[in-house]
Amino acid sequence: MKSPKTSLNEILDRFTKDVLYGEVVGSTTDCGVIRLGVDAEAKISVESGALRFAPLDTPGWGRQGVAYGPFTPQAGLAFGVFMLNGHNNSQTLLQPLKAVHRPSAGQPHPSPQNPFKTHFSSTLLQENLAVGWFDHPAPAQPLEAGQAFVMQGHPIANGRLCAATVQGLHHLLLDIPNIPIYFLSVLRAKGVIFYAGSTAGNRHLPALPRLRPLAIDPYDLGAPALYAGIHQSVLGENGGQADTRVYGVRVVHVPEWQGYGTALIVDPQPQLGRKAALGGVWRLEGPGMLLVPREPGGLFHVRLTAPASLIWRYRDPDHHLSLELSPQEVRLHLRYGGKAYVLAREPHPYTTQDPHWVQVLDDGQTLHITLDGSPIFSEGPLLEPRLGQETGVGLKGQAADLEVHPREINLPLTLELGRPWQVKGQQTVFAPYLNQAAENLLLIWEPTMGPGNLMPAEGGLTIEAAGLERTLYTIPWNHPSLADVECEILPPEKNRKRPAQSRAGLCFWQDAQHHLVVALSLDESEHAVVATLRFAGYENPHSKVWTHVPDKLYFGVAVRLRVVCDGGQFQVYLDDEPVLYRALRDIYPGADRLEIRRVGLALSGYGQDTGSIFRTWVARK
Prior knowledge:
The protein is an all-beta fold and 621 residues long. It contains 2 helices and 45 strands.
């Protein structure tokens, strides 16, 4: 639809009024602004205080999105979105087809042993979500028409967070779990800066209201008017589906971010002996010229012309990191204790002496380094904790347009949109010693569903002979509004005689028609945690919600699975890291709360389990 002729000043959309599917575009926010966008299949709605994007039957850009505007570009104009993507690894075929969770004639159907697995062509639509500034309320190609956060599917990891910039797609963080994220993109005098925050315990992002600076696009889009937009191309991955939920949207001008914003150092033309635009006077020390900001940098963005180096974590000439760009290769150096180490090196394909953009993300423990937006040395993070609290920043050779931002910032109050639900039990109610599997211990657990038998095993208990049927063993639970359950699970070791598989997990039980099961899904091709909800006797095998955990789940290695559920929503942890969050209404719209009457051990029934062992087990309220 056409946008209003006058530009807006600010937006607040909390989705307090329900809107039917297909009627969101053209509806009015609480602040009286018309929602723009595109809804080609009438799959967008507002329900239970959140915007809902349901999976498209024909995936593709330019078919599903909500936008606000137009806005006149000005430095300090900030666009914040607090949301939960349906699945960060959503991806599908480029050709129009029925949604990936509903195979059409001639397409491979999900395996009955594991319904969320299908096979796809090597031609994939990899990017599934774009959130940021665009030159149109319904761009046909958002990645080419905007400066935005982008979520990209990945062959192994659970999705990669990127930034769409004027010069192309910039890779940021790999393996983003399926939990709520606050995305913030701020216009500057020239370009855009990106920030994000999430839940406590996230390996990549700080807990709200803290945000992490993640990327800088130093170029302008060049449009006279901009639209703040949320656009989806595909939802569903490997035969599974989950709706995207947007909890709040805010566009507001932040006066303190009109200039250098959150930067510690800014200097377009660094020069020895001259005062930087922000950060002090450059002085000669050790390997180059140096500035010392008040705290360690977390985002470094600079233009280097080989041969040149970026220096950081600088303590003294014998202690620092440096990234050296030569005409032939890029090298990461560590100087420590007077000794020099080459931590990584990689040839680059550039034959000219053109300048190149270098970006480093540094949280004090790990490094993400890109050259002109592409990762170098490693797709994922490089582990390097040494000198993690040092603050010195230096340059050597020809460098320009240096910016350094801190590792975290505070979200301004004007951009607050709420916090992720992250409740934990405070009192231990039940903690049996599963590694003392005597007969009286077995009697604690009551058979609740399925044919499997709970048996003693080395170091704990196991459920035998369950086949492909769900099996639950539970205990009574007298706290129906909250259960915080944790169990150490030892998946089976690999076996030459038969494939090793694990489907072991935890359950939250109201009755046979209403229960939630959260379990591992580990086999030769899958390393995941999967949550399945049965509600009013209905359970759609394609409506499981799940997350890849390739670096946390291994055969023969114990893992602590913890699930907190209040009957309306649940949060899943592996070894204390949050990996999956959902509200029950996100899975089945309109679902009521689950009254938790029993909790216990589970085999999901979606695939075989070849001998997982339940070890230590704790329940808290």
